[in-house]
Write the structure tokens for this entry.
Amino acid sequence: MHHGSSITAPSPSFMKSLLREVDIASCPKLIALNGFMLEQNLRLEALEKLTIEDCENLDQLPTSAFGNFVSLKHLVIKGIPKLVIVDNQSISLPAKLESLEMGNCGKLDVPLLESASQLSTLAELYIENCANITCIPSSENAFASLSMLKIHGCDRLIEISSRQQTPTVNLGNNMVSLKISDLEIDQYCLLLIDPLRCLKFVSYLHVDKCSGMKALPEQWLLQNSSTLESLYIEDASSLRSLPGRMEMLTALGSIHIHKYHGSGDVTDLPAFVKDKCINSCLWGHL
């Protein structure tokens, strides 16, 4: 942890290439990295995790150097709201990156997400409070290995998705073939936009709220019927009915729906669901 206004690298002769983790956090006075190790010619070949977070006055990162961290698997960039892109600055993420946590990272959020989508190794992606993101990349080869996705607090993305009508999903050859199994979102309407509307391998779905939605998108649930094992909704106060054709969700073993005021109760859920809860009514492992 560093608390100064800038970080200047020591002479390369004192740098150790065996460093595995760097954590720059809670540095409100930090305004620049000033040739810190991120810009050194020395390749930190052992570095596996880099965290830069809660540095509210830091406005630039040497993102073009990220690709030099050949062993980097975990990258966290959060709580840096003043970040800007300078002179068409490129972002080159490490080819072996497995997880990325990005949140409140100023103007860097969109290009960072675009770069991440091209990684063939990325398995986990966490997106929180990214004000400029309006879509999730859905090109043919985007997020080839992504298995876990979490999206929270991206207001513009929510605004756009809330205007979408429940789509009729085409499950043909043109569908984006994401293999996300663990999905956590703050608003159910995000399931109406590409590429999330086309998912069909989700096993765990966690939703914070269903704002403005009277019913869950039945088609989406059905296209994940063979894999969906757990459905959890924290706030279902806007829903007027439970999902239809629940008996088709043959893999479902757990369903928790809270703050629900619509028609139907836990007795309407399929008997094969062993762990089920609606509001305070819990039937577990019957």
